[in-house]
UniProtKB/TrEMBL annotation:
<dbReference type="InterPro" id="IPR050740">
    <property type="entry name" value="Aldehyde_DH_Superfamily"/>
</dbReference>
<dbReference type="InterPro" id="IPR016161">
    <property type="entry name" value="Ald_DH/histidinol_DH"/>
</dbReference>
<dbReference type="InterPro" id="IPR010102">
    <property type="entry name" value="Succ_semiAld_DH"/>
</dbReference>
<keyword id="KW-0560">Oxidoreductase</keyword>
<protein>
    <submittedName>
        <fullName>Succinate-semialdehyde dehydrogenase/glutarate-semialdehyde dehydrogenase</fullName>
        <ecNumber>1.2.1.16</ecNumber>
        <ecNumber>1.2.1.20</ecNumber>
        <ecNumber>1.2.1.79</ecNumber>
    </submittedName>
</protein>
<dbReference type="GO" id="GO:0102810">
    <property type="term" value="F:glutarate-semialdehyde dehydrogenase (NADP+) activity"/>
</dbReference>
<feature type="active site">
    <location>
        <position position="263"/>
    </location>
</feature>
<feature type="domain" description="Aldehyde dehydrogenase">
    <location>
        <begin position="35"/>
        <end position="485"/>
    </location>
</feature>
<dbReference type="Pfam" id="PF00171">
    <property type="entry name" value="Aldedh"/>
</dbReference>
<comment type="similarity">
    <text>Belongs to the aldehyde dehydrogenase family.</text>
</comment>
<dbReference type="InterPro" id="IPR016162">
    <property type="entry name" value="Ald_DH_N"/>
</dbReference>
<dbReference type="InterPro" id="IPR015590">
    <property type="entry name" value="Aldehyde_DH_dom"/>
</dbReference>
<dbReference type="InterPro" id="IPR016163">
    <property type="entry name" value="Ald_DH_C"/>
</dbReference>
<dbReference type="InterPro" id="IPR029510">
    <property type="entry name" value="Ald_DH_CS_GLU"/>
</dbReference>
<dbReference type="GO" id="GO:0036243">
    <property type="term" value="F:succinate-semialdehyde dehydrogenase (NADP+) activity"/>
</dbReference>
């Protein structure tokens, strides 16, 4: 549980986080087994955490179930006030939280700080939305009855978060659950559990009653996932991760018809039409592709550029990519940090090798870099066709393949020809084209003339095999509520 000096040296107030997640472990059984958390930039050991078992998860579910009635019984204002205090505590400690995030995940410190504040934004939003859970009255068919609809919390929620946004994903998942009156068991990714532990430590100080928030550390996500899915006291599973794991969890939940919210894989296209502002499109593509070293579910995975502007875009984009600085997230002016691990690095290499073997050309980058850590050069590849692996699979790395197209209608059909439907981007000026393309793209989120679109006020999620449900916005709150119809007769 204790952080190593290699991490605490980056903290302004290490005393606040030296025992990250100790509150979450206080009521668990003895855990002799530990697993390690490393810095992907240097390979340094950051912490050793208890490797919790199925019995520990079951105990956490029991605590959450016991706390559910009391938490749901608080007024919306009381729950809102606690969420507000948690929000402010995260803002006040954002520098330390960002340092923890950068150390365990690798992203540049400025990006980490932005993510932490974005996490706080979700807490603020749902602190407000907690007071806006409304029912309705229905006009009855006779005067001797009244018909009402009320909304109640679904119950205990099991949340599983990924490693690529280990702060904002935690807040985005559990803040609507808490606002709705649900208790939560959170299993953060084993690669990046430390910032989740720090956020939970701040939650404890914000005044959440015992059992409302429960943190589970474990190196084996499959074991934890099976217990959360099979335990009848868990009424809902919220998961962000790969489509393959989503399918598995969906099957495991099916016996109990358990409510699910899944945000799964993506294969986001980024289309530049011939009437686009090319300079703006280049900047948008840099944002959409290289944020978090390309390790985002909404990362631009395939860049399609119309033939008449293909050369101009390619030159300007490649020149911008060459200027991106790769390095340790704590170093100044770093734009791109490491990949999360060796497996992620190897996948990018496979995609580059496959494309080159099939005739594509590397315009810049294309190989590992640095003597330590899992760094890969920001890479641009041209001469790409849609059958290459980097166009068919989600790369999840700093690799930008550019595909030339001529027919605007054909490119829409081509980018829709995938099982994924999370996010898409396009740049154009003609309003008729903008409306036509936006409505034709089979994706849950569309960025039009922008490379960034995430907001706590907007519904985040995909269609097809990219997910079920939405996170953020008022719609995200509805996913944690049950609708109950009341018919009062004899009046």
């Amino acid at each position: 549980m204790t952080l190593t000096p290699s991490l605490t040296k980056h903290l302004k107030h290490p005393d606040r986080f030296i025992q990250i997640g100790s509150e979450a472990r206080a009521n668990t059984t003895a855990l002799p087994e530990l697993f390690s958390v490393f810095n992907p930039s240097s390979g340094e050991l950051l912490a050793e955490l208890p490797d919790m078992t199925v019995e520990d998860v079951s105990a956490a579910v029991a605590r959450a179930y016991a706390a559910q009635e009391r938490w749901a019984g608080l007024t919306a204002r009381e729950r809102s006030d606690i969420l507000w205090r948690w929000h402010q505590s995260i803002v006040d400690n954002s520098d330390d939280l960002a340092a923890i995030l950068t150390a365990e995940m690798g992203k540049p410190l400025a990006e980490a700080k932005s993510e932490v504040l974005h996490a706080a934004d979700y807490l603020q939003w749902y602190a407000e939305e907690a007071n806006r859970i409304y029912g309705e009255t229905i006009s009855a068919p006779s005067n001797d009855r009244r018909m009402l609809v009320i909304k109640q919390p679904i119950g205990v929620v099991g949340a599983i978060t990924p490693w690529n946004f280990p702060a904002s994903m935690v807040a985005r998942k559990i803040s609507p659950a808490l606002a709705a009156g649900c208790t939560v068991i959170l299993k953060p990714a084993e690669q990046t559990p430390l910032v989740a532990g720090a956020i939970f430590a701040l939650a404890q100080r914000a005044g959440f009653p015992d059992g409302v928030l429960n943190l589970v550390y474990a190196s084996d996500g499959d074991v934890i996932g099976r217990e959360l899915c099979s335990n009848p006291d868990v009424r809902k599973i919220s998961f962000t991760g790969s489509t393959e794991v989503g399918r598995l969890l969906m099957r495991q939940c099916s016996d109990q018809i358990k409510r699910i919210s899944f945000e799964l894989g993506g294969n986001a296209p980024f289309i530049v039409f011939d009437d686009a502002d090319i300079d703006a499109a280049v900047e948008g593509a840099i944002q959409a592709k290289f944020r978090n070293a390309g390790q985002t579910c909404v990362s631009a995975n395939r860049l399609y550029v119309q033939s008449s502007v293909y050369a101009e875009f390619g030159e300007k984009f490649t020149e911008r990519v060459r200027k991106l600085k790769v390095g340790d997230g704590f170093d100044t002016d770093v734009s791109v940090g490491p990949l999360i691990d060796e497996q992620a690095l190897a996948k990018v290499e496979r995609h580059v090798e496959d494309a080159v073997q099939r005739g594509a050309k590397i315009r810049c980058g294309g190989r590992r870099t640095g003597s330590n850590g899992t760094f890969f050069e920001p890479t641009v590849i041209t001469g790409v066709c849609s059958t290459m692996r980097l166009a068919q699979e989600e790369t999840f790395g700093p690799l930008a393949p550019i595909i030339r197209f001529d027919d605007p209608d054909q490119v829409v059909r081509e980018v829709n020809d995938t099982i994924y439907g999370l996010a898409a981007y396009f740049y154009a000026a003609n309003l008729k084209r903008i409306w036509r393309v936006a409505e034709a793209l089979e994706y849950g989120m569309i960025g039009i003339n922008t490379g960034r679109m995430s907001s706590e006020a907007a519904p985040f999620g995909g269609i097809k095999q990219s997910g079920i449900g939405r996170e953020g916005s008022r719609h995200g709150l509805e996913d944690y509520l049950e609708m109950k119809y009341l018919c009062m007769g004899g009046l």
